[in-house]
């Protein structure tokens, strides 16, 4: 039987999205630019992991980090065009989960 070969781009995309917290962070940022503390509080993630994941998403050009010079300095994160392109994918997962995922099974 001939097995279908997985496209390397598809495989990399899944690795990015499957990395712990990344998809939830992208989903959170679909609401618009947010400060670090807002993301941390809304997602419920540790500071260390949040910093690591945001850096990873920044390297992948999915998230953009902006330093707002003020006292104290404010750091804001927002999705790039590449990040916003994931919106239909995440909305489809949201719709699918509302139909098919039973919370009691979690």
Brief summary:
This protein has 106 residues and is an alpha+beta fold. It contains 6 helices and 3 strands, in the order H-H-E-H-H-E-E-H-H. It has a 3-stranded antiparallel beta sheet with strand order 1-3-2.
| Quaternary structure annotation | single chain
State the end-to-end distance. Answer: 36 Å
Shape: globular
Order of helices and strands: HHEHHEEHH
- Share of helical residues: 40-55%
In spatial order, strands of the major sheet run 1-3-2
The secondary-structure class comes to alpha+beta
> What is the CA-based Rg, rounded?
16 Å
Number of strands: 3
Q: Unreliable stretches, pLDDT < 50, 5 or more residues?
A: none
Instruction: Specify the number of helices.
Output: 6
Provide keyphrases for this structure:
106 residues; 13% strand; 6 helices; 3 strands; three-stranded antiparallel beta sheet; alpha+beta
Q: How would you describe the overall organization of this protein?
A:
It is a single chain. The protein has 106 residues and is an alpha+beta fold. The protein contains 6 helices and 3 strands, in the order H-H-E-H-H-E-E-H-H. The chain has helices at 8-18, 22-29, 36-43, 47-59, 81-84, 87-100, and strands spanning 34-35, 63-68, 74-79. It has a 3-stranded antiparallel sheet. A hairpin with a 5-residue loop joins strand 2 (63-68) and strand 3 (74-79). The N and C termini lie far apart (36 Å).
């Amino acid at each position: 039987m001939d097995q279908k070969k997985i496209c390397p781009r598809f495989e990399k995309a899944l690795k990015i999205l499957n990395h712990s917290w990344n998809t939830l962070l992208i989903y959170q940022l679909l609401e618009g630019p947010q400060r670090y503390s807002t993301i941390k509080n809304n997602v419920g993630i540790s500071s260390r992991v949040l910093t690591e994941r945001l850096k990873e998403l920044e390297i992948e050009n999915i998230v953009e980090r902006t330093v707002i010079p003020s006292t104290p300095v404010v750091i804001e994160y927002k999705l790039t065009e590449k990040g916003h392109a994931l919106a239909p994918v995440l909305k489809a997962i949201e719709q699918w989960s509302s139909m098919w995922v039973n919370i009691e099974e979690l």
